[in-house]
Amino acid sequence: MKIEYEREYQVNYTEVDQNLKLALVDSITLQQNMGTEYFESFKSDNVILRNQNNAVWVVSKTKVHFNKYPTWGDIIYARSYTTKVKPIRVEMETTFKNKDGEEYFCAKQEMCPIDLETRKIRKINTVNYPPDMETEENIIDEPFLKLTADFSEDDLVYKQKVFLTDIDYSRHTNNVSYVKFIINTLSSEFIDRYQITDFEIHYINESKEGQILRIYKKEKENSIEFLIKEGEKEIVRANLIYNMKGM
């Protein structure tokens, strides 16, 4: 069975940064929306899983590589497809191209079904997911990173309360909110000077409305590693790679 999903997007004014380029947070939002619509197309979205299997899909890892950023008003042609199906997780990719077929950016995502009662990972064959999905080769060949940097309280940037608007259908903090918390450790001067070429985020544990998160940042040469914690529990780790603009 060959199942893929395609659609067009136009970059809106509210999705761009101060340079009229698609912002990182909004590129992750597009990728998440495409993934949701893709799973909806073969009747395996979270509404169906909640109603039929008492489960929801959660993203465990996302890796995004940027060749260039679309600009306000540009039309993006997006396509999602499955690359791997394993007993407890699925990998998919989404490509975002211009009308000439040139790639703006590509995202690789790993996800698992979580039982709503136990909050533990379920096997793929216990939820509503086609057993004969045809897969394609990865465009992003690099494996997910091992994010293991040590952080101290000297690396703490700020604390963030999880508000109502951060909560999604799964009743935990939305993935995009974590990206927003991370990007808010940067400055507008950073966005003016540097181009983000790669971003990877690992979702380790859930957080919920009302909790106080601690956002840490450790800078390296042309990369920044991040950690988000709630108390002593790690919630998210992430890595961002950048180059000087014009290089």
Keywords:
alpha+beta; single chain; Thiol Ester Dehydrase, Chain A; about 250 residues
Structure description:
With 247 residues, the protein is α+β, with helices and mostly antiparallel strands. It folds into 2 domains: 141 residues, Hotdog Thioesterase (Thiol Ester Dehydrase, Chain A), CATH 3.10.129.10; 103 residues, Thiol Ester Dehydrase, Chain A (Roll). Helices cover 17% and strands 39% of the residues. It is built from 4 helices and 10 strands, in the order βααβββββααββββ. The chain has a 10-stranded antiparallel sheet with strand order 1-3-4-5-2-7-10-9-8-6. α1 runs antiparallel to α3. It is globular. The termini are far apart.
Overall pLDDT confidence: 95
Helix content bin: 10-25%
What's the total number of strands? 10
Total helices: the number is 4
- Biggest beta-sheet profile: 10 strands, antiparallel
Write the SSE topology.
Elements: E1 4-10, H1 24-41, H2 46-53, E2 55-66, E3 75-85, E4 90-97, E5 103-115, E6 156-161, H3 175-183, H4 188-193, E7 194-203, E8 212-220, E9 223-230, E10 233-244
Antiparallel strand pairs: 1-3, 2-5, 2-7, 3-4, 4-5, 6-8, 7-10, 8-9, 9-10
Helix pairs in contact: 1-3
Provide a concise account of the structure shown.
Helices cover 17% and strands 39% of the residues. With 247 residues, it is an alpha+beta fold.
